[in-house]
Structure formats: C-alpha cells, structure tokens
Amino acid sequence: MTANLAGDVTMRYVDLRPEEPSEALPVLLLHGFGTTFDMNWRATGWTQALADAGHRVLGPDLRGHGASDKPGDSGSYLPEHCVADLVAMLDELGVARVDAVGYSMGSRLAWELAVRHPGRVRSLVLGGFGPGDAFAGTDLSDPGSGDTPFDHVFRTVAALPGNDPAALAACARGQAARPFSADPLPVGVPVLLVSGARDTLAAGAEGLASRCGGTHVEVPGRDHANAVSSRVFKQAVVEFLGERARGRGAGTAPPVG
C-alpha cells in the first residue's frame, strides 16, 4: 500500500505487509539524506530481505525527498518536525511500536524518535552513523561548494533525478541547526550500529554502540555510499531483529491519539 500523510507537509509512505500481517512485527525504514525509500531500501534488497524474515515494512519518503512535499525553508526540517511526521504516520496506521532502522540522516531521526517517544521504539538500528558532526567544515549557505565529506554527498545527491537542490540545502541547514548529541541516550532500547570500514561519516560508531550498551558491526571494504547494500549489513539486522522478536507481541494497536 502506498499512501499520503496529510499535514503541514504531505509525506508519502508505503506499508508493505506479508501474507500474515497479524503476526508481522513492523519495521520502520528511514532513508538517508538525498535518497528515497525506494532508492535506499527497495533497490538495495532490504524490503525483500525483511519480507522473507516475516516483517511488515513501513517506509516514508522523508519531507524534502522523493514523492513527499519539499518546502524551501530550513525551519521545516528541524529534527523534531521530521519525528512528528513519523509519529503521525504510526498513529494513522494504528502501530504502537516499531523496530526503527535508519541509514545516515535516517539514523539520526531514528535516534530522535527513540529519545523523544521511547514507548514507540522496540529496538534501534543505526546504519552509516556516528556521533560526530556530519556537517563539519561545510558552508551550509552553499552546500556542495567545498571539499568536506558532506559536500561530496551533497553534490552527488543534488544531481539525482527528481531531487530539488534548494530543498536539500534547506534540509541540511535544518538538520544542522540541532547538532546531534548522545545525551540523553535511548532508554530501554536495544541498539545495533552498522558502518562501513571506510565510512568517514560514521566515525565513532563503535564507541557510540558501546556507550549505548549495544553492538557494532563493521562492513569490510564498504564506504558511506555502498555499505547499505551489503549482505553483511542485511544479515546483521535480520538476526538482530529476530533475536528481539522472540517473546514479544506484534506491536500493533488501535490508533493512538
């Protein structure tokens, strides 16, 4: 099912249910900066891997991306607004709790969801993410004009068909306006971090996992751009979710709020 969540910003999302939806634990997939649900997750084999494992997949195009609205003001992209979109989607679907799996910017938002709404997140997977400042050294008045890791990312995604560079620049400024902090930590949420061995944007992932009491998996030979498609990454997440699934319910409930 593909649907639109109507609000101040309309968000497109998919709800992919296996044959036995009442038994399926919902997994929320949050894509990275400048990509989409289809690009980040479907094209790289994630939806099939999770379906094969019996999971229900919820996947938005985050505001500013894909088929969702793309406002031009940076204030629209503050992390709290993006998280509010996710909570509204879960409420509309009647989903009480999810396993949240993010990549890059999606990991930052998965963390924010777990911290702000701990009752909605059963477990947390952070891919391509570390505790450092992803925008360090970048001139956010003109992202892509320099030579920082984020400048390279911005130039790549801004050139992709369907992307709006002005909206992406506003998104970067909005996200940067709330620098990531590992305080407070998610409470009572099992955490897995996965990063490519050559991913400079995910530097410090192992230390962050240790601080959370979680686990870190390194993907050999992969960088920020290609770690997400790795079989090692998928297997680690499917196994992690399987371990969490034993002994818990499906996580659905009547609409909340």
Quick description:
The chain is built from eight helices and eight strands. The protein is α/β, with parallel strands linked by helices and 257 residues long.
Q: Spatial order of the strands in the main sheet?
A: 1-2-4-3-5-6-7-8
The end-to-end span amounts to 23 Å
- Number of H- or I-type helical stretches: 8
| Uncertain parts | 249-257
What percent of residues are in strands? Answer: 15-25%
Which labels suit this protein?
257 residues, globular, alpha/beta, disordered C terminus
Description:
The chain is an alpha/beta fold. Helices cover 33% and strands 17% of the residues. It is built from eight helices and eight strands. It has an eight-stranded mixed sheet with strand order 1-2-4-3-5-6-7-8, with helices on both faces. Helix 7 links the parallel strand 7 (191-196) and strand 8. It is globular and about 50 Å long.
List the helices and strands and how they pair.
Elements: E1 2-5, E2 11-16, E3 26-30, H1 37-42, H2 46-52, E4 56-60, H3 79-93, E5 98-103, H4 105-116, E6 121-127, H5 149-158, H6 165-176, E7 191-196, H7 205-211, E8 215-219, H8 231-245
Parallel strand pairs: 3-4, 3-5, 5-6, 6-7, 7-8
Antiparallel strand pairs: 1-2, 2-4
Helix pairs in contact: 3-4
